[in-house]
Amino acid sequence: MLVAPLRLLPLLVLLSLPPRLVGAGRPLGRLGPGLAAPLPDLTDVDDPDGSRQAAIAAAAAAGQACRTVAFTAAKANYRRRKAGDRGTQVVFDRVVTSVGGGWDSARSLFRCSCPGLYFFTFHALSPSQGRARVDLMLNSSRVLSSEANYGGFDSGSNSALLRLGRGDIVFLWLAEGFLYENDARFRGYNSLSGYKIN
């Protein structure tokens, strides 16, 4: 039957794409005091000599079994809802789900310990009289952005498939504007989720 192979065709095409499509991302340089804690030296996202991709492939070829990895973090911390002049890392107050390790709630970032292909999605909400631009970051490079414009509680979201190596970090960066959150403990209008596909 041809139905099953045709359903797999988009995934096969996706897996045949170059492993990193973020080369056009604009590096932030030193992330500085806006982050929850200092970051280590970060891998160059462009991987010009291919050594990073070779290490990912070697780990997969060695049969390194990885468990299920998935997380959702929500509710932007009230101290990190304003970008200011330089932007700031989005810090989350609530962990909704964290399975298999990787989500660091103290630093509000995902650190890859199991190389592979991951899906990330995020959502941002601007206040009634403001806007917000939020960037999904891989190490120190912007992967993609979302914009929540003026107009009264506008929202922006985006998603990406990223091939990660051991030690890569993914987090949200509030580049411009403000984020809105209600003070109710159980609500969370801003969020970041991710899970390992293979």
UniProtKB/TrEMBL annotation:
Pfam families: C1q. Residues 67-198 form the C1q domain. It is found in: Secreted. The keyword Iron does not apply. GO terms for cellular component: collagen trimer. This is Complement C1q subcomponent subunit B. Keywords: Secreted, Signal. It comes from Amphibalanus amphitrite.
